[in-house]
Specification:
The complex is a heterodimer of chains A (783) and B (261). Helix content of chain A is 28%, strand content 23%. Chain A has 19 helices and 28 strands. In chain A, the strands form 7 sheets. A 7-stranded mixed β-sheet of chain A has the order 3-5-1-12-9-10-11, with helices on both faces. Chain A starts with 15 loop residues before the first helix and ends with a helix. Among the domains of chain B are: 1-53, Uridine Diphospho-n-acetylenolpyruvylglucosamine Reductase, domain 2; 166-260, 2-Layer Sandwich (Enolase-like, domain 1), CATH 3.30.390.50. A 5-stranded antiparallel β-sheet of chain B has the order 4-5-10-6-7. The radius of gyration of chain B is 18 Å and the shape is globular. The N and C termini of chain B lie far apart (49 Å). Classes of the chains: A alpha+beta (783), B alpha+beta (261). The A-B interface holds A 124, 127, 131, 286, 651-653, 692, 696, 704-705, 708-713, 718, 771-773, 776-777, 780 and B 1, 3, 40-41, 172, 175-177, 179, 237-240, 242-243, 246-247, 250. Bound molecules: flavin-adenine dinucleotide. Residues 26-34, 51, 71, 75, 94-95, 99, 102-104, 106-108, 110-111, 116-118, 155-156, 177-180 of chain B line the site of flavin-adenine dinucleotide (FAD).
Chain lengths: 783, 261
């Protein structure tokens, strides 16, 4: 292994050279001959009946080629945008999924929902055309508020009480019994604020149809091009799967929002055949605010039962989750199987009961956003644990230590379905406390107080389930897809290697991490590995990148294909050594045999596979290319301890994070620098949620925070220097011992920040985001 | 954006001439406010008249106790001056680097955004706004929300700031936009103590109760117990009127403390 580029080395990211010199190829950078432009006509109303749409004035605009309405898609057999995970209610009935035509036909249900689109020679003409479309609406009363949605006017005909489902998990009776026997019950009502993803690259699509071969090619900003393809083919009926190629070139961030199958790419690829020319669409930033699926938006009541000495006995959680106007692609799984299943946290709590009511409102659809369900779960568990400690006058660290699942209890079956494979929670806690200099806290607090400032400290010990996911488990829970991953390792004649992966990189650095894995295992130079992804025409299949699954599932698939390459290499080498394959050893890029003092380098074996002069052709096919599909046996369970220290200026309400420590256990780490970068990004988003970001609708369903003038994206200057470190308990069930690191920072940090703020203010709760205004008002209420 | 004619004026008369002969014209300076509104199709002028090539319009000079800032002086240029540190400091905190590299004092004042910073400086320092037609006392310039004393087509040419004995600007910035939620300029000038407040109300104003208290005693504690009437203050997503009212005092005190430092 090359220490500079192998597993464990902080190799600089290959892909950054092209990204930072403007040489990336994003969807909007791609133009094809004959291309036209598309603009969507979006609803100005949160809820309205469409009486009529007059496209004639738009057709009269110079340069406009075609104007489409939703009816034309329906007439052509284009189906609804599906939700791919069926969640059942307590009574066993399946969730209610209201009709969701890509282009609205009879009603519009959120501001920004498209009801027509214009294809024109130029973007300017398409804009003019979109403005000229006339629609007659009956404006209806809109439902906006999460907490009261189920008692508000009914939005969808098939969804009484605006309810999608009323789901439960855990043992209700055992939990009730735990509460009956408890010495103390802590109650906490909290909200998890709506977030708007804001990837740096807005969504875009370029669809073209080749009449000669009856094939469609869709370039789009997808985190999972194969899923995009199968959904468009199988459910939306755009084209047979074999005739549809989806390419996700360089993609500038997704955070979940680019997992989903949206109206825009559906419309563009479908219409490209109708128009007979390629069609391009790229969202404006203002459009992204409305048209990308949002994140979070929960209202929760939680209760924790404890013994007088702080033993956690039972947890009850009742959540209302806002789904927005329709069920987006994976939305139903987020506040259920990615949420309720995490309520044990790092603790031995024996009885847990979780209920989630998913409700519709006239707001943009809500779906997975960095962490997806797990930040919400951590927020509930870690806020209520800290609150309980305060109520019992216990040190929150001690209360946690007392309840941690001990290292010798793994594998550990939680009362909420998951079986944790490994972990050492006390170890990361100890390391975090050391880095946080918790001993010096009292003096720092006194110094703040002397300056008229309030100081607080907060902890958060998160766990998450990622490396998504064992296929049969998730299918049994309602998922419409398997969640394995595919890989192909193609060794070239010269011994260089192309890796086709079903994972998709939109900022994660796979081209580097995966190349490190391959170069390390094959003992070949890092630079001779080329990682190819994001093209259904080049990778066999793939489920894409989300749920911190790329290294744990995608990497394991590559590892499995490498096993096959090495096994075949041994056979070839054995033939050349004139021995049997069990006597051939492979290490550091060399095939060796005890009976020979001349080891054969990997490239020589590759050469022999393609120029089979000395080769067992009667037993072995020529060539050296192997495929593998890897289906994980379990989720992986990254966990960590975060400590946040804040100082608040009571005169302005401004919170300053003075210290933020994150100690994570990601198991084995391929590239520590990339992992640290992922943690930094996650922390920025989690701290953004805690202090800055908030998607707010007014009473009529207009998005009040629809631009950067009002929606606060975290900037570097808003964030402290992070102190980041790691502990490691390698995953026990995947070949690399890896767990995944993409979401952890966003999962663990909001609770740490809010625990620190409530500690500083001496209050039970402050609603997120804790903006200066909110903090100031909290202080005024107490005064 | 809708199409428009881009007209580059070579001098002030030319600019005004183009403006007058057009049925619907608008001047563009740094474009930091105008261009976003054009892009969002909120404005649809026939002619956009560019002031950037007019000679001398961006000059900054300092003579006889007056700093004279040309209308086309960009925020980054004002931030680099030294004769009125409080003014330079204010300019250095407008928006972000990109905005400061384009936005101009003339554009900012003509626009009269209720959250803009310069209005606090104009009132706090007792500046005079010069146009192609006249000189307007700062105190008479800001009329209402986005409304100024400028006549249609009138062009700001420069702003004269008398150099104060000492002055300081305290700003509480909106976390998202970086505009002022509340900004307060406190200055000790030859004409007495002046306090200019921006962000709090429909447009910037002088706070005479603070001016009187600070004239008697230039210390933060002099402001204790003075009630700031916030009943007409702005109330929006980011700050209630009461919060703005409280911030006016907090920012004024910060400015006074900086003065003393
Ligand atoms: C992201 C962002 C953040 C910002 N943050 C702040 C902030 O923190 N504080 C702050 O004060 N401002 C802020 N601004 C505003 C910015 O500083 C500019 O001052 C402002 O946009 C106007 O200046 P401009 O030169 O860009 O004018 P333009 O956009 O070119 O013009 C604005 C208006 O003024 C008129 N005009 C321009 N020049 C003249 C003239 N000489 N005579 C008569 N009329 C004229 C134009 O016709 C137009 O109507 C921010 C802007 C942005 C985009």
């Amino acid at each position: 292994m090359d220490a500079e580029t192998g597993i464990g080395a902080s190799v600089l990211r290959k892909e950054d050279a092209r990204f930072i010199t403007g040489k990336g190829q994003y969807t909007d950078d791609i133009s094809v001959f004959g291309q036209t432009h598309c603009v969507f006509v979006r609803s100005p109303h949160a809820r309205a009946k469409i009486n009529s749409i007059n496209t004639d004035p738009a057709m009269a605009v110079d340069g406009v080629i075609r104007v489409f309405t939703g009816d034309e898609l329906v007439e052509d057999g284009i189906g609804d945008l599906p939700c791919g995970w069926v969640v059942n209610s307590k009574d066993g009935s399946p969730m209610v999924s209201p009709p969701h035509p890509p282009i609205a036909t009879t009603v519009v249900n959120y501001v920004g929902e498209p009801y027509a689109f214009v294809v024109a020679e130029t973007l300017q003409a398409a804009r003019d055309g979109a403005e000229a479309v006339e629609a007659d609406f009956d404006i209806l009363e809109a439902v906006v508020d999460t907490a009261t949605a189920s008692s508000s006017t009914q939005i969808h005909e098939n969804a009484p009480n605006n309810q999608a489902y009323d789901w439960e998990l855990g043992d209700k009776e055992a939990t009730d019994a735990a509460f009956e026997n408890a010495d103390h019950v802590t109650e906490l009502d909290i909200t998890n604020n709506r977030l708007i993803p804001n990837a740096i690259e807005p969504r875009a699509a370029l669809g073209s149809y080749d009449a000669a071969s009856s094939t469609y090619t869709l370039y789009t900003t997808s985190q999972n091009p194969h899923v995009e393809r199968v959904v468009l083919a199988l459910f939306v009926n755009v084209a047979p799967e074999a005739n549809l190629r989806v390419i996700s070139p360089d993609v500038g961030g997704g955070f979940g929002s680019k997992i989903f199958v949206y109206a825009e790419e559906t419309a563009v690829i479908w219409a490209s055949a109708k128009v007979g020319r390629p069609i391009k669409w790229r969202a404006d930033r203002s459009e992204s605010f409305l048209a990308d699926a949002h994140g979070r938006d929960h209202v929760t009541k939680a209760q924790l039962a404890l013994s007088s000495d702080g033993e956690m006995l039972g947890l009850r959680v009742k959540t209302i989750a806002n789904m927005g106007a329709y069920l987006s692609t994976f939305s139903s799984s987020v506040p259920t199987y990615l949420y309720g299943t995490l309520m044990a946290g790092q603790y031995k709590t024996p009885a847990i009961y979780v209920e989630t009511q998913a409700v519709f409102t006239n707001t943009s659809p809500v779906d997975a956003y960095r962490g997806a369900g797990r930040p919400e779960a951590t927020y509930v568990v870690e806020r209520i644990v800290e609150t309980a400690a305060r109520e019992l006058n216990m040190d929150p660290v001690e209360l946690r230590r007392k309840n941690f699942i001990p290292p010798d209890a793994f594998p550990y079956q939680t009362p909420v379905a998951l079986e944790y494979d490994t972990g050492n929670y006390a170890a990361s806690m100890s390391k975090a406390l050391e880095l946080a200099d918790s001993d010096g806290y009292a003096a720092r607090k006194a110094a703040s107080e002397a300056n008229g400032k309030l100081r607080g400290i907060g902890y958060s010990c998160y766990i998450e389930a990622c490396g998504i996911a064992p296929s049969q488990l998730v299918i049994s829970l309602g998922a419409g897809v398997g969640l394995f991953e595919s890989a192909e390792v193609r060794v070239d004649v010269s011994g260089s290697v192309s890796v086709m992966t079903g994972s998709h990189s939109h900022g994660q650095g796979h081209e580097t991490t995966f190349a490190q894995l391959v170069s390390d295992r094959l003992g070949i130079p890092f630079d001779s590995v080329n990682v190819i992804h994001g093209d259904t025409g080049r990778s066999d299949y793939g489920l894409g990148t989300y749920g911190s699954r790329s290294i744990a599932v995608g990497g394991s698939a590559i590892d499995k294909a490498l096993d096959k390459i090495i096994a075949k290499g041994k056979k070839i080498a054995a033939h050349m050594f004139e021995t049997t394959e069990d006597k051939v050893n492979f290490a550091e890029g060399q095939f060796s045999y005890e009976g020979s003092n001349e080891p054969k380098p990997f490239a020589e074996i590759a050469g022999a596979a393609y120029i089979p002069a000395v080769y067992p052709l009667d037993e072995l096919e020529p060539g050296l290319s192997e495929k593998a599909f890897y289906d994980p046996k379990n989720f992986t369970y990254p966990a960590g301890s975060y400590v946040c220290e804040v100082e608040i200026d009571p005169s302005t309400g401004v919170t300053e994070i003075q210290k933020f420590v994150a100690v994570d256990d990601f198991g084995n780490v391929i590239n520590p620098m990339i992992v640290e970068g992922q943690v930094h990004g996650g922390l920025a988003q989690g701290i953004g949620q805690a202090l800055l970001e908030h998607g707010i609708y007014d009473a009529d369903g207009n998005l009040s925070t629809g631009s950067y003038m009002d929606y606060t994206m975290p900037r570097a200057a808003d964030l402290p220097d992070f102190e980041v470190d790691m502990t490691s308990t390698p995953c026990t069930h995947n070949p690399l011992g890896v767990k995944g690191c993409g979401e952890a920072g966003a999962i663990g940090s909001p609770a740490a920040v809010m625990n620190a703020i409530t500690d500083a203010l001496g209050v039970k709760d402050v609603p997120m985001p804790a903006t200066p205004h909110t903090v100031w008002e909290t202080i005024q209420q107490g005064a | 954006m809708y199409s428009f004619n881009f007209r580059r004026a070579s001098n002030i008369e030319d600019a005004q001439q183009i403006h007058q002969s057009s049925s619907d014209a608008v001047y563009v300076a740094g474009g930091m406010t105008l261009i976003p509104s054009l892009k969002l199709r909120l404005a649809n002028p026939d002619d956009v008249v560019d002031l950037s090539q007019i000679e001398g319009l961006s000059a900054i000079s300092s003579n006889d106790g007056v700093v004279s800032v040309g209308a086309m002086a960009r925020h980054c240029e004002v931030a680099a001056t030294s004769d009125i540190p409080a003014l330079a400091s204010l300019a250095s905190r407008i928006g972000d680097a990109q905005v400061r590299n384009r936005g101009t004092i003339g554009g900012s004042l003509a626009n009269n955004d209720p959250s803009a910073d310069y209005p606090a400086a104009v009132l706090g320092l007792g500046a005079t706004i010069h146009t192609n037609a006249r000189a307007i006392a700062g105190d008479d310039f800001f009329v209402d929300l986005f409304e100024t004393a400028l006549e249609d087509g009138e062009i700001i040419t420069r702003v004269d700031f008398p150099i104060p004995k000492r002055a300081a600007y305290a700003k509480f910035a909106n976390q998202a936009s970086k505009y002022a939620v509340v900004g307060v300029m406190v200055a000790e000038t030859d004409a007495g103590v002046r306090v200019g407040v921006t962000g709090a109300a429909a447009c910037a104003f002088r706070l005479t109760s603070f001016e009187e208290a600070l004239s008697a005693n230039m210390s933060a504690s002099a402001l204790d117990g003075i009630d700031v009437d916030s009943s007409d203050f702005n109330s929006d997503l980011h700050a209630s009127a009461a919060y703005r009212g409280s911030l006016v005092t907090v920012m004024a005190k910060q400015a006074v403390e900086q003065l003393a430092a």
